[in-house]
Amino acid sequence: MNVSAIKKNFNLLGVEIKIFFTLALCADANGIANVNKDKLSKYIKVSRQTIGKYMRTFAGCNILKYKYSGKTFFNPEFYYTGPEELRAKVQEDYLRFKSDV
Description:
Order of helices and strands: HHEHHEEH
CATH superfamily: Winged helix-like DNA-binding domain superfamily/Winged helix DNA-binding domain
Distance between the termini: 29 Å
Oligomer: single chain
């Protein structure tokens, strides 16, 4: 992923794409990011309510699960950058993850 190109053109992206890419860039190899709505809203320059709206949309599409504390877990079938031999375990962890939504 070309991070510098994303950062350079960040203002041209829609809000939902900004939220997704920001979370993806903060995620570890297993697809877990620890960024709360306050930090996201300040970085992207939108309200917490807007962040919540799109987080609920992503969760409704099974793209991710999240907790209000800021822990976000991407569905490994949708976004995963870790080693292939661990994908099945991460998928099990994702299914067990209790989302607040």
